[in-house]
Design a protein that fits this description.
The structure holds 2 protein chains of 2 kinds.
Chain A lengths: L3 H13 L1 H5 L9 H5 L10 H9 L3 H5 L12 H5 L6 H14 L5 H13 L7 H9 L13 H14 L1 H4 L2 E2 L4 E2 L2 H5 L3
Antiparallel strand pairs in A: 1-2
Helix pairs in contact in A: 1-7, 8-10
Chain B lengths: L6 E5 L3 H4 L2 H13 L3 E4 L12 H4 L1 H18 L2 E4 L2 H16 L1 H11 L12 E3 H9 L1 H6 L10 E3 L9 H4 L9 H8 L20 H4 L1 H17 L4 E4 L2 H18 L7 E3 H8 L18 H4 L1
Parallel strand pairs in B: 1-2, 1-3, 3-4, 5-6, 6-7
Helix pairs in contact in B: 2-14, 4-5, 4-6, 5-6, 7-10, 12-13
Chain lengths: ~190, ~300
């Protein structure tokens, strides 16, 4: 583990390229991101502040800030930044690092459970099958939820990258660990 | 366009087929009307959501998106989508994997575990761009049977349709024109409104993280469209549809006010103007209801 900046460049750099992530250094704190932010209008998210915190290595403070999760990834600041800072991708990378260190809410972890069970973040149920029939479509689309062997490919990816461990997934219960008893529902 | 490209692999995603199948049925029907076939991608999964899985672990997001791309590659077809999330995810993944050979190698190591390989032979298109650029406004206009002359439409682009523009390639995200052009074909007007370019509030796990905050964000957008005299909102994104339509029922619970401001996916609005029924387009089976002015 290096500084937060180094970790951002290393982690995000593997996907977007290091130069893309190094644009964080170009931030001059002008605040155009914050002024453009539709979330900041309603929440405590201040993108400019977030980037300054990242640059001065306030790792725990950022990871514990609820507003880190209030960015909708709308890319407005990304488009407008006069210094070409790749804002949205930097925020997503900081979130990745936070999630890796266990800062991930139960509702966010549950999205992974749906994908591990069906291949879909929003799976289909009996009622929705009727909606499909009403507009003349097959009751179930030919996706991973229908074909188990296809779903297993997605599950293999999650196992390989360790996403299952990151959300504390219980393969026997096909749910988050400990959720079975607390929630009481299957 | 060549004859072969008249067939697309239709990447359904989650919300289109599993919540708003009228978007799927309507889009297929309209494309078919203009000689464009759509084939389902057998075994496709969640795209997966770029602001959600991209935020949690981009090293998982990418191979899942790449796996979806390989399905279209095997079909030897280019992809068409009806959701900005799917568009954002699949187009970005395709772009990154074509640009970065090392990343492609690493991704293919994972896909190789079940015999798949990303080759870089497909492209990702949005259905609305296919309507605008491939079919074209003149041909669309010929099929308008019920002009929408007296309808004021609040166009809502969503985010990942236009941004980041370096990947999407539809020009400036501050002065978009594609939806306006499509609405004008029907005779509808597209008044400017305060929060026109604002996000619906759902993305990036925001809807899941704090739904009331996300709904307040949407409420402001809807109010600004209503204040500008708009009769309905038309958009190109199944995920925005979930937020803007179902979100109005959630807003009623959270804030005690039900706007019933009509929400339509672009092909649903075009479908009505082309003479399809609201039942065929699934508009009779959602939270917001369509007024006579739109149905005629």
């Amino acid at each position: 583990m290096g500084t937060l900046y180094e970790d951002i460049v290393a982690h995000g750099g593997e996907v977007f390229g290091e130069e893309h992530m190094e644009t964080l250094r170009e931030c001059v704190q002008c605040g155009k991101c914050t002024g453009s932010c539709p979330s900041g209008r309603n929440t405590a998210l201040r993108t400019r502040k977030l980037f300054q915190m990242a640059l001065v290595d306030l790792r725990e403070e950022i990871f514990n800030a609820p507003e880190l999760w209030f960015c909708s990834t709308c890319y407005t600041c990304y488009e407008r930044c006069p210094k070409g800072v790749k804002t949205t991708d930097i925020i997503r990378t900081i979130r990745n690092l936070a999630a890796k260190e266990g800062h991930m809410s139960v509702p966010h972890r549950m999205i992974g459970v749906y994908v591990l069970k069906t291949g879909h973040a929003v799976p289909i149920g009996a009622d929705q099958m009727k909606l499909r029939e009403a507009v003349g479509l097959e009751s179930q689309p030919p996706t991973t939820q229908k074909y188990k062997e296809q779903l297993e490919q997605v599950q293999t990816i999650f196992r390989t990258t360790g996403y299952d461990a990151m959300i504390d997934f219980d393969w026997d219960a096909m749910n988050l660990k400990g959720m079975e008893k607390k929630g009481g529902k299957k | 366009m060549t004859e072969e490209s008249k067939t697309y692999a239709y990447f359904l995603g989650c919300i289109t087929p599993n919540r708003y199948p009228g978007i799927e049925a309507g889009t297929k029907k309209i494309l078919k009307e203009f000689g464009i076939e759509t084939k389902e991608m057998m075994g496709a999964s969640c795209c997966p959501a770029p602001g959600v899985f991209g935020s949690f672990d981009m090293h998982t997001w990418l191979p899942v998106a790449a796996r979806n791309l390989t399905i279209a590659e095997e079909m030897d077809l280019e992809i068409v989508v009806t959701c900005n999330g799917c568009y954002g995810s699949l187009q970005e993944a395709d772009h990154l994997l074509k640009e970065h050979p090392k990343l492609r190698e690493k991704t293919n190591e994972i896909l190789g575990k079940f015999g798949r390989e990303f080759k870089g032979t497909t492209e990702v298109h949005h259905s609305i761009v296919v309507l605008h650029d491939v079919i074209g406004l003149d041909r669309l206009k010929e099929q308008i049977k019920k002009p929408m002359n007296d309808v004021n439409v609040a166009v809502h682009y969503g985010c990942h349709f236009l941004k980041p523009r370096e990947v999407r390639g539809h020009g400036s995200s501050e002065t978009p024109y594609i939806l306006e052009d499509l609405m004008k074909v029907t005779g509808a007007k597209t008044p400017e409104y305060k929060d026109k370019l604002m996000c619906c509030g759902a993305g990036g796990g925001n809807r899941t993280a704090d739904s009331v905050q996300s709904l307040e964000w949407m409420r402001q957008k809807l109010v600004s469209a209503i204040e500008a005299g708009c009769d309905c909102m038309v958009h190109p994104c199944a995920f925005c549809h979930l937020q803007l339509d179902r979100g109005q029922a959630e807003m009623e619970k959270a804030f005690g006010v039900f706007f019933n401001f009509p929400i339509l996916f672009a092909t649903q609005f075009l479908g009505l103007a082309m003479g399809l029924s609201q039942k065929e387009l699934g508009l009779d089976n959602q939270t917001t209801t369509m007024p006579d002015k739109i149905l005629k």
